[in-house]
Specification:
alpha/beta, six-stranded parallel β-sheet
Amino acid sequence: MKLRILLADDHQMFRDALRSLLEKTPNLEVVAETGNGLEVVDLARKNSAHIVCMDIGMPGMNGVETTRRLVVACPGIKVIALSAYSDQRFVLDMIRAGASAYVTKAEAGDELLRAINAVRQNRNYFCPDVANVVAGVLSGDGDQGKLSAQLGARERQVLQLVAEGHT
């Protein structure tokens, strides 16, 4: 069975490049694409998408809010955040919204394929840049260091394992 993918990014050239990459991969099918966050939920439902590759900065509705609405409206759908930004704020917002993976656009090629394979297996995935951000948060080195102090030892252990790609 082919994995059905929806591309949501406001840059047409980037969507074209992703489509080209994904269409060369067996068992992946790009079923729809949009540049507007307001269209994502309807397109995902209409096209029975399994995965949405979601840009964070889109017109209409940003990727964080779109992800929140999407995971409620389409239980079981997986969201892979795609962004030019690896700032803690963006990473944590997308994780909290329900994204299963986060890949920076600078690393999008093979990293995106790794993320797709991970979420297909119900695992989380963070590209190396983002894994470093998550590790910084856990160690208290970043702006979100207070989060680590709020978590118990087991919660920190689980978050670390998720950052490493485990379920």
